[in-house]
Amino acid sequence: MKSTKISLIMVFAAALILSVPANSQTESQNSTSVKNSLPDSLFFNSLVSLYVRTIDEADTTLASDVWSPTAEISFMGPTETEYGWNEVKKVYLRFRDNFSTRKLTFSNLKYYYSNDISWLTYYWIFDATSGNNSTPVQTKGRETQIWRKLNHEWRLVHVHYSGMPVSTN
Hints:
By secondary structure, the protein is α+β, with helices and mostly antiparallel strands. The chain has a domain at 58-169: Roll (Nuclear Transport Factor 2, Chain: A). Helix content is 38%, strand content 37%. The N and C termini lie far apart (82 Å). The chain has a six-stranded mixed β-sheet, with helices on one face. The chain contains five helices and six strands; from the N terminus they run ααααββαββββ.
């Protein structure tokens, strides 16, 4: 009887331990994870922060882990509209080729989600150095992102950015 109780306690403890997410991930693993184990506001901030990192580093490998591997992805900016990963990848290559330094910051993040789809909006400031003549560049705008949960991970499927609202006063 006593060994049965001990066995049951051990099984319960093992199940409990296995159900809690491990905290022993490396920094790289933490920063590229797009699974939701955080409160909503922190989680959606982490999605945008990961996207920002892909832009800052102009890193197509990291970006391919953020974007959905499906064909329907799209990126719409004031000068380009790209569909599918091979075209979206060009956006990162343009950032890499045109700016020697890149720093994207965001603010006023709003998020909404339902089951396996979320849409996020925020304002951004992009500070960079032009690669051609080392001239500082700053642009400001707003962005909408649509994320979709695929295989229990959130993946980016659409970005649409534009300039700041124009005042009519």
